[in-house]
Amino acid sequence: MEEHGNWCLIESDPGVFTELISNMGVQGIQVEELWSLDTDFSELGTVYGIIFLFKWEANQSSNSSDSQRNNLSNNDLPEDLIFMKQIVNNACATQAILSILLNNNEINLGPELDNFKDFIKSLTPELRGMVLSNSETIRSVHNSFARQALIINESVSSNESEDLFHFVSYIPFNNSVYKLDGLQHGPIRINDIPESHTKNSGKARELEWSEVAIENIKQVINNFKDKEIRFNLMAITKDRRIGYNTRIDQIKNDLKLLQKKLESLKLGEDDTESIEKNINILISEKNELQNQINYQNEKLHSYSIENARRKHNFVPMIKMLAEALAKSGNLENAIKKARKS
């Protein structure tokens, strides 16, 4: 096997992750970048899990409080929670994504990941990691987002150290919050969701579990003691257009009922003004929801364009342009202008 098991590094970006998930056959999912630890999760709709990217250091695992939590016996862990050991370093982005997707039965995984989940669920974490690293389909989708190398610098020593970054996932599972880190021995139970919230609505529980996860993420960040500022946080959510369209359908039905009621009333009756006011409120909400759908469509379209640019190899075009400028005698001037800008 070649170094890194033929898995490339991919960019930590919501557009990349959203299209990667879609290309694996999963439907109704999008990825949102979280710009603040104080993000209002209620605005994100249904959140299935959180992905956290941070700088990895060799002594982190042994010194972290997570490692102490990690000493849970197998009897303390849910049997149906799917945890995979990380076998290939560069696969950790896709592994973090899969750790969320495979542990939520509400998600439509599609035939490829359904088969993958069925195959690995009875295996050990180490064997699950091996199956993932050798999955041609998943690896092909992952590698389709490889960053194009414009210039290969052969003068850089292969021994030169580079910062390593690592992805981990946070998920709600059986009224607890778990951290799934493929470099650990098993799943880490961060904390239980308080009983007062487990009896509440799904929305209340969603907000509570995300608060538990964010608190742990803050601890990880604080462990760096201001020596590191490069972190990235993303949430895997239900496609927000689904919720918007569902609400629009409800509004359409409500408008029909109100219109029928309005038509049955005589002109000037007391209820007329109230019904007309409700109709206007619903129409205003419907228009706002449609604006939100349009915004999401534009955002996903921009993701598609950016991903196409990421995948395209611009080297031949740049080479031909440089050659044309050289032949016309304009290359030197172009270089000077570029340096000034």
From TrEMBL:
<feature type="active site" description="Nucleophile">
    <location>
        <position position="92"/>
    </location>
</feature>
<feature type="active site" description="Proton donor">
    <location>
        <position position="166"/>
    </location>
</feature>
<dbReference type="GO" id="GO:0016579">
    <property type="term" value="P:protein deubiquitination"/>
</dbReference>
<dbReference type="Pfam" id="PF18031">
    <property type="entry name" value="UCH_C"/>
</dbReference>
<keyword id="KW-0833">Ubl conjugation pathway</keyword>
<protein>
    <recommendedName>
        <fullName>Ubiquitin carboxyl-terminal hydrolase</fullName>
        <ecNumber>3.4.19.12</ecNumber>
    </recommendedName>
</protein>
<dbReference type="InterPro" id="IPR017390">
    <property type="entry name" value="Ubiquitinyl_hydrolase_UCH37"/>
</dbReference>
<dbReference type="Pfam" id="PF01088">
    <property type="entry name" value="Peptidase_C12"/>
</dbReference>
<feature type="site" description="Important for enzyme activity">
    <location>
        <position position="181"/>
    </location>
</feature>
<dbReference type="GO" id="GO:0006511">
    <property type="term" value="P:ubiquitin-dependent protein catabolic process"/>
</dbReference>
<keyword id="KW-0539">Nucleus</keyword>
<keyword id="KW-0175">Coiled coil</keyword>
<dbReference type="InterPro" id="IPR038765">
    <property type="entry name" value="Papain-like_cys_pep_sf"/>
</dbReference>
<dbReference type="InterPro" id="IPR036959">
    <property type="entry name" value="Peptidase_C12_UCH_sf"/>
</dbReference>
<keyword id="KW-0378">Hydrolase</keyword>
<keyword id="KW-0645">Protease</keyword>
<keyword id="KW-0788">Thiol protease</keyword>
<dbReference type="InterPro" id="IPR041507">
    <property type="entry name" value="UCH_C"/>
</dbReference>
<dbReference type="GO" id="GO:0005634">
    <property type="term" value="C:nucleus"/>
</dbReference>
<dbReference type="GO" id="GO:0005737">
    <property type="term" value="C:cytoplasm"/>
</dbReference>
<feature type="coiled-coil region">
    <location>
        <begin position="248"/>
        <end position="341"/>
    </location>
</feature>
<feature type="site" description="Transition state stabilizer">
    <location>
        <position position="86"/>
    </location>
</feature>
<feature type="domain" description="UCH catalytic">
    <location>
        <begin position="6"/>
        <end position="238"/>
    </location>
</feature>
<dbReference type="InterPro" id="IPR001578">
    <property type="entry name" value="Peptidase_C12_UCH"/>
</dbReference>
<dbReference type="GO" id="GO:0004843">
    <property type="term" value="F:cysteine-type deubiquitinase activity"/>
</dbReference>
<comment type="similarity">
    <text>Belongs to the peptidase C12 family.</text>
</comment>
